[in-house]
Amino acid sequence: MKTFDLNAELKKIKQNTNKDELGMILVHNGIVRGTSRVGNKSVSIMELSFDKEKLSEAVKKAKENKGVKSVVVWINEGKLSVGDDIMYVILSGDRRVNILKPFEKLIENIKSNVVTEKEIIEHK
Questions:
Q1: pLDDT tens sequence across 92-111
Q2: What are the boundaries of each domain within the chain?
Q3: In sequence order, what are the beta bridge partners of 118?
Q4: φ and ψ at residue 24, rounded to 5 degrees
Q5: Which residue, 10, 21, 40, 69, has most beta carbons within 10 Å?
Q6: Residue 53 CB contacts under 8 Å (≥ 6 apart), including other chains
Q7: Are the CB atoms for 68 and 54 separated by under 8 Å?
Q8: Which residues of 58-94 are buried (b: 16+ CB within 10 A; e: fewer)?
């Protein structure tokens, strides 16, 4: 399992963004849940993969939004256990009104079009 250093990424964003243009940083941390999306069954493992080209396109599209200053996406790939990090999405920008919707759209795009996940259900 890969790891992600959230504090280091936040520090980079703050150091590399014009202070007059940085008013908000949003962070999403997806985690492997212990129950399935459908049927509320116990999950033992999630197998996750993603399309790097589609991810690159999604990030590029998010950066085109007014007020968005930086986008960082990290996705964990392979067999993940309950409680493991699936992904981090960080979007920074000038004002809440300019970056909330692009942040939400980016996460939805990643979940719908970029990642492929398969929940392995525990058999009791």
A1: 999 999 999 999 999 999 99
A2: 6-121
A3: 47
A4: -160, 140
A5: 69
A6: none
A7: no
A8: bbeebeebebbbbbbbbbbbeebeeebbbbbbbbbbb
| Tens digits of residue pLDDT in 23-82 | 999 999 999 999 988 888 898 899 999 999 999 999 999 999 999 999 999 999 999 999
Q: Is the pTM of this model over 0.90?
A: yes
- Name the CATH superfamily, with its identifier, for domain 6-121: Molybdopterin biosynthesis MoaE subunit (3.90.1170.40)
In a 10 Å sphere around its CB, with 0-12 CB exposed, 13-18 middle and 19+ buried, how is residue 102 labelled?
Answer: buried
**What are 7's two structure tokens?**
């504090």
Residue with tokens 């996406």: 73
**Structure tokens, 114:** 């970029």
- In the chain, the N- to C-terminal Cα span, in Å, equals 26
